[in-house]
Amino acid sequence: MNARAKAKISELLVILGTVLFVGGAMCHMRGALPAEHISGIGALALIFMGVGAGTTKAKQ
Question: pLDDT (tens digit, 9 = 90+) per residue, 13-31?
Protein backbone atom coordinates (compact mmCIF):
# COMPACT_ATOMS: atom_id res chain seq x y z
CA MET A 1 0.00 0.00 0.00
CA ASN A 2 1.31 3.43 -0.80
CA ALA A 3 1.61 6.31 1.62
CA ARG A 4 -1.39 8.18 0.22
CA ALA A 5 -3.73 5.23 0.82
CA LYS A 6 -2.44 4.80 4.37
CA ALA A 7 -2.99 8.48 5.04
CA LYS A 8 -6.59 8.25 3.83
CA ILE A 9 -7.23 5.19 6.01
CA SER A 10 -5.85 6.93 9.09
CA GLU A 11 -8.00 10.01 8.36
CA LEU A 12 -11.07 7.79 8.01
CA LEU A 13 -10.33 6.11 11.35
CA VAL A 14 -10.11 9.48 13.08
CA ILE A 15 -13.35 10.62 11.44
CA LEU A 16 -15.10 7.36 12.40
CA GLY A 17 -13.97 7.74 16.01
CA THR A 18 -15.21 11.32 16.10
CA VAL A 19 -18.59 10.34 14.67
CA LEU A 20 -18.93 7.52 17.20
CA PHE A 21 -18.05 9.84 20.07
CA VAL A 22 -20.44 12.61 19.04
CA GLY A 23 -23.20 10.13 18.18
CA GLY A 24 -22.84 8.42 21.54
CA ALA A 25 -22.96 11.74 23.37
CA MET A 26 -26.05 12.82 21.45
CA CYS A 27 -27.82 9.52 22.15
CA HIS A 28 -26.96 9.80 25.82
CA MET A 29 -28.33 13.33 26.06
CA ARG A 30 -31.56 12.30 24.31
CA GLY A 31 -31.87 9.22 26.52
CA ALA A 32 -31.97 6.85 23.55
CA LEU A 33 -29.30 4.48 24.89
CA PRO A 34 -28.64 3.25 28.43
CA ALA A 35 -25.41 4.21 30.17
CA GLU A 36 -23.97 0.70 29.74
CA HIS A 37 -23.88 1.10 25.97
CA ILE A 38 -22.47 4.60 26.06
CA SER A 39 -19.26 3.49 27.77
CA GLY A 40 -18.67 0.85 25.09
CA ILE A 41 -19.28 3.33 22.29
CA GLY A 42 -16.89 5.78 23.93
CA ALA A 43 -14.22 3.11 24.25
CA LEU A 44 -14.53 2.17 20.58
CA ALA A 45 -14.37 5.84 19.61
CA LEU A 46 -11.15 6.31 21.59
CA ILE A 47 -9.61 3.19 20.04
CA PHE A 48 -10.42 4.32 16.50
CA MET A 49 -9.15 7.84 17.14
CA GLY A 50 -5.98 6.55 18.81
CA VAL A 51 -5.17 4.15 15.99
CA GLY A 52 -5.88 6.79 13.36
CA ALA A 53 -3.79 9.42 15.09
CA GLY A 54 -1.00 6.92 15.80
CA THR A 55 -0.66 5.85 12.21
CA THR A 56 -0.71 9.49 11.10
CA LYS A 57 2.14 10.40 13.46
CA ALA A 58 4.16 7.27 12.68
CA LYS A 59 4.51 8.33 9.05
CA GLN A 60 5.80 11.81 9.89
Answer: 999 999 999 999 999 999 8
50 in any annotated domain: yes
Residue 40 lies in a domain: yes
Q: How far apart are CA 49 and CA 20, in angstroms?
A: 10
Q: What is the pTM of this model?
A: 0.82
Query: CA-CA distance, 48 to 35, in Å (whole number)?
Result: 20
Q: Counting Cβ atoms within 10 Å, is residue 24 exposed (0-12), middle (13-18) or buried (19+)? A: buried
The answer to whether residue 27 is domain-embedded is yes
